[in-house]
Amino acid sequence: EYTLLHLLSSVYGRTDVMTLGKFSLNLSNCPVFDHTPFPSLVNELIEQLVTKSYLLSLSLTNLNTSQFLPQKDYNANRLKTGLLQLSSGTHLIVNEMAMGPGQLGERGVANLTALGGVVQ
User: Fold this and answer.
1) Which among 12, 35, 37, 54 is least surrounded, fewest beta carbons within 10 Å?
2) Which DSSP letter does residue 76 get?
3) Mean pLDDT of the chain
4) Residue 113's pLDDT band (boundaries 50, 70, 90)?
5) Euclidean distance between CA atoms 42 and 33, whole angstroms
6) What share of the chain is helix, strand, coil (3-state, %, to 5)?
7) pLDDT tens-digit map of 74-105
8) Are 70 and 80 in contact (CB under 8 A)?
9) Cβ neighbours of residue 109 under 8 Å, at least 6 residues apart?
10) Distance between CA 111 and CA 69 in Å, rounded?
11) What is the pLDDT of residue 31?
12) Residue whose C-alpha is closest to residue 27's, from 80, 89, 96, 75
């Protein structure tokens, strides 16, 4: 029921720091399966219901090596795309279960900061 409410919600206004109409959904205490991770199953379900969705894995390797925000390449005079450059109406599924112990580098911290800005 909450998943359907989340899929139906849309932002219709912003006042100061409050976003009106946004209904974020956080699933916790997810079961762990040997054959298929739970976030992948949720993503498959969401893909059946909406036209655009993206599963973002927050593994240590992904955070430290991927580029979440667009970045200017001055040598080629081009803008490199970032993982968080999603089209309007895309449902972003963040897999926090992929996190593990380790050290976040400078890029990893910047990526988490960017993700925090998107979530707000």
Assistant:
1) 35
2) T
3) 86
4) very high
5) 13
6) 35, 20, 45
7) 999 999 999 999 888 888 888 888 888 999 99
8) yes
9) none
10) 7
11) 79
12) 96
